[in-house]
Design goal:
The protein is an alpha/beta fold. The protein has helices at 51-57, 63-79, 97-115, 154-159, 171-179, 182-185, 208-229, 243-256, 259-262, 281-287, 289-301; strands at residues 16-18, 27-31, 38-41, 46-47, 84-88, 122-129, 190-197, 199-200, 234-235, 239-240, 265-271, 305-310. The strands form three sheets. The protein has a seven-stranded parallel β-sheet. It has a three-stranded antiparallel β-sheet with strand order 1-2-3, with no helix packed on it. Strands 8-10 form a two-stranded parallel ribbon.
Length: 311
C-alpha cells in the first residue's frame, strides 16, 4: 500500500486526554513511533463520514473489493495532509440488528486496513446522527421527524430511554456490538468515540424539565455506557440548545458525568457561518457565539477541545 505523508507514526497505546491547568485548554497526547515520551496531538482532520455505507453498497461483492476502496479512501485522506478522519459508525439506513452487525464488521475492516499502513491514520467514530441524511430508519429526515411511535424518535430516544431499546440498531446495542470486538475497543488508531452528531434540542426538548431529562435520562447514562465500554478518549458531540440556557446546561452536564469518563472527555463544537465577503460583523458574531461558550467551558475545566466541523 502506498503511504501518504499526512499520518503520524504508529502508536503502541491509545491516546489519552490531559487536563490543562486552571483557565487553559487540555490536550490529547499519544506515544508515537520509537519515542517513549507522549506527543501532544494537534491536527486538522478530514471527514469520510459515509465510508461504511459506501463499502457496504458500492465497493463490490468481495472483501478484497471493500479493502481496496477502504485503502483508497485512507490514502486520499493521508495524501491531503490530514492525520485524523471522522466517520459515522452506521450505514445510511438503520433500524435493525443486521445493519448494526454489518456496520461493526465494516468498521473493523477499516480499522484493520488502516493498521496495515506504516503510518496509520487516527479515526473518530460517531455513533448516532441527529441530523437528516444519514443513520436512521428514515434517513431523509432528522430524528425529530422519525415515527413518534419508534424509539428512534428524538423525544423517545433522548427523554424516554429509547436509546436503550434492543433489536433496533440503537445506541446501547451499537456500543455493545463495537465493544465486543477487541480490535475496535482497544485500537490505538481510534482517537475517540463520539455519542451523537449535532444533537439539536431546539425542536424536541422544549421545556426546562425536558432539558434536565435530556441530561439525566440520555447524556449522562449514555456517556457512562461509552466510558465503561471503551478505553479511548470520549466525545459527547456538538450540542445545540438555546443560547440563554447553553452555558448553564453544559456546566451541569459535565459536573454530572462519571469521573472516570470525564477524565477522558474531549469537548466538541461545530461552526457554520456565512461567507465572510457577504456577511456583516454582527452576523459572524451570532454564528460563533456557541464556539465562544464552548471554548470558555473547555478552558475553565481544562478539557481538550475539538472543532469537529467548520464551514
Amino acid at each position: 500500500m502506498a503511504q501518504g505523508s499526512g499520518a503520524w507514526p504508529r502508536a503502541a497505546t491509545v491516546a489519552r486526554a490531559v487536563a490543562g491547568p486552571p483557565g487553559q485548554l487540555g490536550h490529547l497526547e499519544q506515544s508515537l513511533g520509537e519515542s517513549r515520551a507522549p506527543t501532544p496531538l494537534r491536527f486538522l482532520g478530514a471527514h469520510v463520514f459515509d465510508l461504511l455505507d459506501k463499502l457496504a453498497n458500492e465497493a463490490g461483492p468481495a472483501e478484497i473489493d471493500r479493502r481496496r476502496v477502504a485503502c483508497a479512501a485512507l490514502e486520499a485522506v493521508a495524501a491531503s495532509g490530514a492525520p485524523v478522519v471522522r466517520l459515522w459508525g452506521s450505514l445510511k439506513s438503520t433500524g435493525d440488528p443486521s445493519e448494526l452487525d454489518r456496520a461493526a464488521e465494516l468498521l473493523e475492516l477499516v480499522i484493520d486496513e488502516n493498521a496495515r499502513r506504516a503510518r496509520p491514520l487516527r479515526v473518530i467514530v460517531t455513533l448516532l446522527n441527529h441530523q437528516p441524511g444519514y443513520g436512521s430508519p428514515r434517513p431523509e429526515v432528522s430524528l425529530d421527524d422519525q415515527d413518534p411511535r419508534s424509539p428512534w424518535s428524538a423525544r423517545r430516544l433522548y427523554l424516554g430511554g429509547g436509546f436503550r431499546e434492543r433489536g433496533q440498531g440503537l445506541l446501547a446495542d451499537r456500543i455493545a456490538a463495537f465493544a465486543a470486538r477487541p480490535a475496535l475497543a482497544g485500537s490505538p488508531e481510534i482517537l475517540g468515540w463520539e455519542l451523537v452528531n449535532e444533537l439539536d434540542a431546539h425542536r424536541s426538548i422544549l421545556a426546562p424539565a425536558d432539558a434536565a431529562k435530556l441530561r439525566d435520562a440520555f447524556l449522562v447514562p449514555a456517556f457512562a455506557l461509552l466510558a465503561q465500554s471503551f478505553s479511548q478518549p470520549l466525545l459527547i458531540g456538538d450540542l445545540r440548545l438555546p443560547e440563554a440556557d447553553y452555558a448553564t446546561f453544559t456546566r451541569a452536564l459535565v459536573a454530572a458525568l462519571p469521573p472516570e469518563g470525564r477524565a477522558r472527555l474531549v469537548w466538541t463544537s461545530h461552526v457554520y457561518a456565512a461567507r465572510a465577503a457577504s456577511a456583516q460583523a454582527p452576523e459572524l458574531e451570532r454564528a460563533t457565539w456557541k464556539l465562544d461558550r464552548d471554548l470558555e467551558l473547555s478552558a475553565e475545566l481544562g478539557l481538550p477541545f475539538l472543532l469537529g466541523e467548520l464551514g
